[in-house]
Amino acid sequence: MSTADVEAVWRIESARIVAALTRFTGDFGLAEDAAQEAVAEALVSWPLASPASPAGWLMATARRRAIDAIRRRAALQDRYALLAADVAADSAVDEEIDPDEIDDDVLALMFVSCHPVLSPEARVALTLRVVGGLSSEEIARAFLVPVPTVQARITRGKKTIAAAGVPFELPPAAERRERLGGVLSVLYVIFAEGSTATSGDRLLRPDLAYEAIRLARTLAALQPDEPEVHGLLALCELTAARFPARTGPDGSPVLLDEQDRRRWDFSAIRRGLAALAKASTRGLGPYGLQAAIAATHASAPSVEATDWERIVLLYEALGRVAPSPVVELNRAVAVAMASGPARALAIVDELVASDRLPGSHLVPTVRGELLARLGRRPEARAELELAARLCANQRERSVLLRKAATLS
């Protein structure tokens, strides 16, 4: 079995293994460390002799490593004895893990990884590490931060969870619904970074985006009666459907009006529309409304044939349930397409006057586009040049500079 095979098994099974270990040991940090030791051992031993049940081998090995660690803690001898007895009783079960089973342990693991006591950065790092199975190196590469930074976030996160006495259990139904928004926001942040990288020399980080989709699918299977879970999944699927057409062969961005829509992933569109239908059962929330906007784009044969009036209405609804300056800015773009750039510029100028997105390249980007459409070329060029200076993504910056140069 190759290293790639080991990594694939780990990516699929890691959440279940860490969750089960946490339930048995009562120690989130110990469970994650033991699971990491198990996969490290697998990288050495599996190429020599592949186990009959890879998931069972990882679970049994990780459990033994957890027991070894507990044995070294003199104060936990009683817990060790209980765990040792449990392993002896359940060893046969370990070797017969059902790879298709998804239980509440994984859901509990998601809620622990996204616990409110953690910083947003720690929530993202822990979710990708213990639920997604990504290594510190992969997370660091995705977010363009040093590996030690990611490792420090994970270590601090585990210590914070331990110090706060966060239990490994599913929150009660009412509390779970309150905290579900936090879990969804973490998955959304992960997907958003994969969909449009905030910095670096790539527009897309598809591995990160697809990992967010995988986690969203898992959450949807665990929480099938939560409309917003399906709304987020729909938004991710419908947005990712455009990935094949969003960049050229050299990685340069391709704008929506220039994309070859025949290259869109229609299987992803079908999955997204199916998830949106489930999200619509009790009215659309913020993620469902964004998914409905993405669905409107996905169903249009061209930019010109897009139902921009519908998109404006959806953004207005989104602004009522989840108001933000980014929503207003996106509404301005839709208004420009539906009613012309003059009305849209008034919306953007209000954002500028209130300084609600300071330091963001998005406002001057949109303002520059609107000014260009109104024939105010010198002002448009100045706005696009400002946007380029503020933009940390090299691919987006090159597009902004190219547009600005056409206005000279």
Automatic annotation (TrEMBL):
Keywords: Sigma factor, Transcription, Transcription regulation. Residues 111-160 form the RNA polymerase sigma factor 70 region 4 type domain. Residues 179-279 form the DUF6596 domain. It comes from the Bacteria. The keyword Zinc does not apply. Signal peptide: none annotated. This is RNA polymerase sigma factor. It comes from Sphaerisporangium rhizosphaerae.
